[in-house]
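User: What would this chain look like folded?
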Amino acid sequence: MMSSTSKPNYKKYIFESLGVLAIFLIWLFAYLIIDNNIILPSIPSVFSSLFEILKSGDTYLTILYTLIRISISLIIGVFFGIVLGVLSSQRKEVHYFLSPFIKIMRALPIASIILIILIMFGQNGLGDLTFSPIIVTILLIIPIVYEAVYKGITNIDESYIYVARLYSKNKFNMITKSYLPLIKNEISISLAQSIGLSFKAMVMAEYISQTQRSIGFSLLNAKSWLEYPTVFAWTFILIFLAILVEALSAYIIKRN
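Assistant: Here's the prediction, encoded as structure tokens.
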């Protein structure tokens, strides 16, 4: 007999499907009321544009470059977030020193960070991998991971820390074998948040910096030529990519 925990959650799938259907119904009613394809494109026109985009080979190269930029940003941002979070949890001086930087990075609007970095670095990069969008995304990821790691380690029960000190050969071993496994949930949550934010920040940075071979630049071109069905079509692609990457990340984290 199948246990309750292993049964497929049909209710979840049914109501999620109803939610998606509701979105399309709202879109349809809004289109009928507005009756202007420039302000709000029709559903058929958007899917027609989506089909045309997916037929082009350049589309997949554009997506690949954006995903590479996001991947680089995530790897660097998560790495420094974990390292700085661990250092801050072990030394209060480091936490006090980094506190203003973390607060500034969390408080600054994304557009302001993009403009500041764009002024500093311009269109410099390695080929089509422009540095500005990558740096912007890294700066937005670091505070999320940093705070998750710092708060996670500082909130570990003292009894666990005592046992970890008994069985750890050195400080590095204690951090990697005891502290980080104990806060894996906090790290997983911060990683999921970072992935969602990285897509938004990267595409916005690509849009403002007019980065060649990018989804942001494709959106800018479509907007400049008033091709709003194409804008909606690229938005669908972005939503799909973000959901896919988050699902893959969640699966990998769960397996590990």
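The mean pLDDT is 85. If you want, I can go into more detail on any region.
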